[in-house]
Amino acid sequence: MKKITAIELCRTINETLDQHKAQDICVIDLEGKSSIGDFMLIATGTSMRHLNALATYAQEKAKSLGFKNTTLEGAQNSGWVILDLGDVVVHLFLKETRTLYDLESMWDPSLYQRTEEKS
User: Fold this and answer.
1) Alpha carbon of residue 18 to chain centroid
2) CATH homologous superfamily, domain 6-111
């Protein structure tokens, strides 16, 4: 199986979340800016059930791409689920929780939405 790049993984997970009605999806390019990964993907679910389903869909997609060590973190009913895929970290929130933690404000908006491979 061909190894997938971080940007391909990010795009694929983004598409998966979009297909399953995640709201306000934001991709933050962290390459060279943080040791936590190359991309942070943030999205909002409409309910705890939707949030957990989004996390499961994203995790299953990653596993289908050959990622064996996918870890879901988040307290039951906390309104925040994290899926660590190594180079891509996925944060899924309920709207109120996303507003409270406001992760996007920690990063320069010019880092959002890298869509092309860097040369």
Assistant:
1) 11
2) Beta Polymerase, domain 2 (3.30.460.10)
Q: Tell me the pTM.
A: 0.86
Confidence of residue 75 (pLDDT cuts 50, 70, 90): low
- Spatial contact of 22 and 92, defined as CB atoms under 8 Å apart: yes
- Under a CB-based contact definition with an 8 Å cutoff, are residues 17 and 41 in contact? yes
pLDDT (tens digit per residue) in 80-109: 999 999 889 999 999 999 999 888 888 766
Task: Give me the phi and psi of 58, to 5 degrees please.
Answer: -65, -45
Delimit the domains of the chain by residue range.
Answer: 6-111
